[in-house]
Amino acid sequence: MAELALTQLHPSLDDPVLLSMNLLNDIASDHPRAVSFAAGRPYENFFRVEQLHDYLGTFVAHLTDVVGLTDEQARRTVFQYGRTKGIIHDLVARYLEIDEGIAVDPDAIVVTVGSQEAVFLTLRSLRASPQDVVLAVAPTYFGLTGAARLLDMPVLDVGDAEGGLDLGDLERRVTAARAQGRRPRALYLVPDFSNPTGVSLDLATRIALLDLAAYLDLLIIEDNPYGVFQADPGTRPPNLKALDTRHQVVHVGSFAKTGLPGARVGFVVADQPVVRGGRPAGTLADRLSLIKSNVTLNTSPVAQAVIGGKLLRHGCSMIAANKREIEVYRANLRRMLAGLTARFGDSGPVTWNTPSGGFFVVLTVPFTVDDDALRRSAREHGVLWTPMHHFHHGMTSSHQIRLSFSLLDDASVDEGLDRLAAFVTAESRAAGSAA
Amino acid sequence: MAELALTQLHPSLDDPVLLSMNLLNDIASDHPRAVSFAAGRPYENFFRVEQLHDYLGTFVAHLTDVVGLTDEQARRTVFQYGRTKGIIHDLVARYLEIDEGIAVDPDAIVVTVGSQEAVFLTLRSLRASPQDVVLAVAPTYFGLTGAARLLDMPVLDVGDAEGGLDLGDLERRVTAARAQGRRPRALYLVPDFSNPTGVSLDLATRIALLDLAAYLDLLIIEDNPYGVFQADPGTRPPNLKALDTRHQVVHVGSFAKTGLPGARVGFVVADQPVVRGGRPAGTLADRLSLIKSNVTLNTSPVAQAVIGGKLLRHGCSMIAANKREIEVYRANLRRMLAGLTARFGDSGPVTWNTPSGGFFVVLTVPFTVDDDALRRSAREHGVLWTPMHHFHHGMTSSHQIRLSFSLLDDASVDEGLDRLAAFVTAESRAAGSAA
């Protein structure tokens, strides 16, 4: 009987980074009645099946009435194999202009199976030899680390400091890597309401980062799943791609949070010029499209049509499309922050950060947080969250917890925080008596 | 300005294999009025937008009425992030039993973004070190070769002989590769109505292949996009997975041809046991799921719902769902074979094979066929087809042409063959006068 030893499969397949998500999902599914601060899913109470029909119909009508296709051509666009770079690239470009202030040629966009594929394609293009490495602001979303593992591409940590990025550390890491014969290709980060920290870079840091990256000859992979979810409208600085005058930024976006996760539609803007023997050879987007041809071929045109229809229904603004959700996230964030103060005070050993939007808050506690602590929390206190060490590869514990609040209603926030407080009290007491 | 030299990107991105599809698409789009024997797309005249609504509605009703989910749970299943291995695995398992005679635990199935992702995930799992190679029956579908290139995994050709596979050659290639320190991991092939040749393996060859692969300790990757499209019902031998008693076969399937291409839904059956330190550690499907988490995360649940609904509408039989299409393909195949005889006779220098189903016929001509010949055919004769050398990596010409007939009606078949005959006559004359 054919039996496969793990030692004969790709090393990533027994790597803690790839196993993280499974382990967390297993703990969650063992405790279905727990209140969950774990899942980074968008609010779902406004979902209706009829929306799918409406969005599909809207997109097909757009193809015939606005684009001018015949019924047969419109059907073919949605049903058949299609353009590798996608069929809603023009709508994505309008969305980027309206919501994100990014002006880009639609042909420099590749529509992908979520932002995960966008990151995977980008790393594949840049990982040309074993010397190539990617840098990432730590703590790092494990989708980046996992994709890099699959491609045998080391990830070098860069410190996040107070403001979300330690520029001095970035320069030191790049210089040290080069001195070791490594080739740093890009810095990955989530500059707006980061996963896992919820922190955003201020404008001065963004501008300084672009200048430093130019000086260091380093691309920036800007992952932007949460940008439109700002709690205080008008306070968000432009994203890196909007400030990019030198084609330094590969911008990765997602409609999983703003559209619907079940469509699995994301995209990458990659307008970097590529040269062959000094002569123009298209853009990086053209090359990512070649890779995509051999990974997933197309992003489902049906799924793209659903997202296209949602964009069209709201003038290509996902801020407009998510008016109600943005209000929920804003209210939940405020309730979380007020609820934490009410339960832990503002001078105690338990502290937390105060993001200005997004889905996440980070709690720092005076005891060690590992996966067993999460299991105790789920079993004894009925509350789930994400241990921060999963976002630091190589670590198995820390003193931090990621709290996600995107999926909850008022009562769940309150109940969840009560349970969390009971867990923190119990663990602090146990840590105190052990000390 | 950031500018990327191709020499600093992954080598596959300047590889003829990856550029093949682009080149062929470019020639096709330069000649929109040509009759096309090139596109391997399913027949599209039965597509209706209403079907999407019907399929989605059918699947959601199944979740509530049969599976017993609440409306809220059903919505969540289709709208939210979901199970990495997919949400229609049980329906896929029923389809495999009904149409393919394969009995498999639904948990050993991973639903993928088309069969391309299934092949990519499988190769990623098996390519553990630079010694690992995959074998493929030549000529080979370029999706396999392209995926292997992205993973720096060499592809070793195996001869196809008369019956579709030269078993002696397979054994010699594996032995020679091992003698060179290489580690052959699997043989990739399309045993039913192969792309590009249209040829099928007979039952004796299938059984002998399974025995030889067991002897050689080699997995088999069976890619089966066309199996249900047999022209003569009841004559198709069981596929390799249906004959597999030793977990030797990784079976890759696709709903692109039977469902709809625009859903981009395929799957892989990988029931191989995996061991860690001699102890059970799940199946290969579990490991492919880990890879998928970091490549595309999920296959769009919306797209899966469309395919799930189509399966449910037809008792989980894609043969039943494609009754009309199968009739079209059968009629087109007969019209192609009769039309070739009418135009080229049965004793001339032009020959072709006679597949018993699928989408393709292969023509052998007495002159050299390269990409320039295709350009002349398109420009001067208004007919497109696929030069066979694109399925032989490293070759730039051959004497063969792949003719696809799946997308055509009677008039197009006749007109296309007339144009093809004119092209063949002109090229034969030019070759004769040059000789």
Task: Explain what the structure shows.
Two copies of one chain form a homodimer. Chain A has 435 residues and is of the alpha/beta class. Chain A folds into two domains: 15-40 and 322-434, Aspartate Aminotransferase, domain 1 (Alpha-Beta Complex), CATH 3.90.1150.10; 52-317, Aspartate Aminotransferase, domain 2 (3-Layer(aba) Sandwich), CATH 3.40.640.10. Chain A is built from 14 helices and 16 strands. Chain A has helices at 16-30, 49-65, 71-79, 89-100, 114-126, 142-150, 167-179, 203-216, 284-293, 301-313, 318-321, 323-344, 371-381, 410-434, and strands at residues 4-5, 35-36, 109-112, 132-137, 155-158, 183-189, 219-224, 249-254, 266-269, 273-276, 279-283, 351-352, 360-369, 383-384, 386-387, 398-404. In chain A, strand 12 and strand 13 (360-369) form a beta hairpin. In chain A, helix 2 crosses helix 10. Chains A, B: One of its GO terms (biological process) is alpha-amino acid metabolic process. Chains A, B: Residues 72-420 form the Aminotransferase class I/classII large domain. Chains A, B: One of its GO terms (molecular function) is transaminase activity. Chains A, B: This is GntR family transcriptional regulator.
